[in-house]
Amino acid sequence: MTANFSDVDLQVISKIQYKNGYKPGDEIGYTNINGEWERIGYLYQTIDNRDTGLYTYMVTDRPVSSEADFEQVKSVHVFYRGSEGFLSLITDNAAFKKDWYENDFPTAWQIVNKIKEEYTPQLIDASNVLNESMKQFPNAYFDLDGHSLGGMDGQFALSEVKEPERIRSAVFMNAPGLAPILTPEHMKWTQQVKNRTVQFYDRYDIVQKFGNLELYGLDSHYSDLKTLAMNPRASGYIRNRLLEEQWEKYTRPMDTVGRLVMIDAKRVDFVSQHIYGGQQFDSYGRLLLSNTIQNDDLILKEWRKSVELYDQLYAKGVIKKIAQIRREYQAYSEKSPGGAKIYLDLGVASVLIDGVRALLSDNVQRIHLDLDRMLAQAEEIWAETQAQLVQFAPTLGIMEANAHLSGCGSSYSSVVGPIQEFVDKQKQVLLSLEVEYMELLTSIKNNATELWQTDSNNAARINF
After folding, report:
1. Can you tell me the distance from the alpha carbon of 302 to that of 436, in angstroms, rounded to the nearest whole number?
2. Last residue of a domain, which of 315, 332, 359?
3. Phi, psi at residue 294, to the nearest 5°?
4. Residue that finishes a domain, picked among 275, 297, 315
5. What angle, rounded to 10 degrees, do the helices at 296-315 and 318-335 form?
6. Is residue 357 domain-shared with residue 287, that is, in the same domain?
């Protein structure tokens, strides 16, 4: 999964979790908005745990035929499947009961009543599967996908993931929000992947209303609206408008796992609404967003930028270094419990700073090249102008050609000069920003190191 997918591609990718018939080694992918086949990877494993109801696809970037391939895998895409449909009441009654009676209904009750520290078997299983897979593929980053119950599975897995820096992205659709039932420690853990996690919210999807929005600012006006809306003599239009439009003024997104993006949903039937039916796209494959309660366009844009930054840091080896530091943390914490957390934070901060410094240098160099290319193009335009004039007036020499161009108000200084001036000015600004930013990064790193050293010295004095 790359950062160049369209919004409609996200929906198509999410639907992969509901497709059946895959076998280990099968190529998994989708047809993008341009009609081109995009490969996500190869099915490594289908997890169908009948005890918990968890159904998950594990897709790797290359075929895996033996344990020797585990360390070669660079990316793993985890698809958490949602609840079994109502047809399964007949075709697979046991699976239906696992999803609905042992997971969906109990979790919905917990969300409404904000009951924490009680999690269903499937949520726990989803967390275990992710952490075990991370051990199995130690050098891979992970993308998560989940719809409905699968989205809840993914949210809970993120709240207990052992190496959050290896989560590249997470996309959840039509899923209730788990934040009301997660402990403060769980929510604190999800903050480490918040900017790379996005949940798409459909206000007409009844299932998704659990745990995502809350009412606030209730007053007499709200009470009047509620009374009118519940009046059996009110028309369906009035009830719908009051319930779905006016009440929106008194709702706001709750604290969530990741970022909540509210779509500009269309109304369809109850079942279709929950199965991606409310999503609308423009001709470019962009999802129509609400932007009424918050700036949804900006949130989705920031999510994409976070994934792009992750890819850059991964390419620089930063993600791998952070994962290694976290593994070393376990050994360090046994020797120095007091300084272990600061050791971890310092190590991660130092690696991130070094990674950002490397990205900064790369980008500065790229901008320099772009500026030089701009100047070279101006030079080429001037040379081509001279050549064309000489070609059409072969009796003129280059000096005469320049004189005629100057008489027309065109000269090297008027064509190339402004570009040269712009390029020189931008390079000066770039140099100033680079020096300033490098000094800031160095200062942050020095301060963090000093803090860790002070903590270690104090711990040693009291034999801690």
Report:
1. 25
2. 315
3. -150, 175
4. 315
5. 80
6. no
| 155 and 78 inside one domain | yes
> Strand 27-31 relative to strand 37-48: parallel, antiparallel, unpaired?
antiparallel
Same domain (yes/no): 275, 394: no
Task: Answer positive or negative: Cα dihedral of 437, 439, 443, 449.
Answer: positive
The radius of gyration computed from the CA coordinates of the chain, to the nearest angstrom, equals 29
Determine the residue type at 42: Y
CATH number of the structural domain spanning residue 206? 3.40.50
The interaxial angle of helices 149-159 and 121-136, nearest 10 deg, is 60
Q: Is the sign of the CA dihedral 181, 186, 192, 196 positive or negative?
A: negative
65 plus 188 within the same structural domain: yes
Q: What is the separation of C-alpha 24 from the centre of its chain, rounded to a whole number of angstroms?
A: 27
| Residue-number span of the structural domain to which 176 is assigned | 7-212+254-315
CATH number of the domain residue 350 falls in? 1.10.287
pTM: 0.74
C-alpha distance from residue 415 to each of 172, 369, 378, 381, 409 (Å): 53, 20, 7, 8, 10
To which residue do tokens 């459909």 refer? 202
DSSP state of 273: I
Task: Check the CA dihedral 113-115-121-125 and report its sign.
Answer: positive
**169, β-bridge pairs:** 143
Q: Helix or strand or coil: residue 60?
A: strand
Torsional sign, CA 140, 5, 44, 98 = positive
Q: Tell me how far apart the terminal alpha carbons of the chain are, to the nearest angstrom.
A: 46
Split the chain (464 residues) into runs of 10 and give each run's mean pLDDT: 74 93 94 89 95 94 94 96 66 69 82 87 95 96 96 96 94 94 92 93 89 68 59 59 56 86 92 91 92 92 92 87 77 57 60 68 72 78 69 59 60 71 74 68 66 54 37
Q: Give dist(CA 174, CA 271) in Å, integer.
A: 12
Tokens of 203: 């206000």
Alpha helices in 114-183, H assignment, sequence order = 121-136, 149-159
What does the alpha-carbon distance between residue 431 and residue 361 come to, in Å, rounded to a whole number? 11
**For residues 54 and 122, is the Cβ–Cβ distance under 8 A?**
yes
Q: pLDDT of 362-372, one tens digit each? A: 766 777 677 77
284 and 400 belong to one structural domain: no
Which residues, listed in sequence order, are joined to residue 59 by a DSSP beta bridge?
Answer: 43, 77
Residue 64 phi, psi (nearest 5): -120, 115
Residue 204: both structure tokens together = 């007409």
Query: Using CA atoms in the order 298, 296, 261, 77, what is the torsion angle rounded to 10 degrees?
Result: -30
CB proximity list for 232: less than 8 A, separation 6 or greater:
none
Q: Name every residue whose Cβ is closer than 8 Å to that of residue 3 and which is 6 or more positions away in sequence.
A: 304, 307, 308, 311
**Cα 198 → chain centroid:** 6
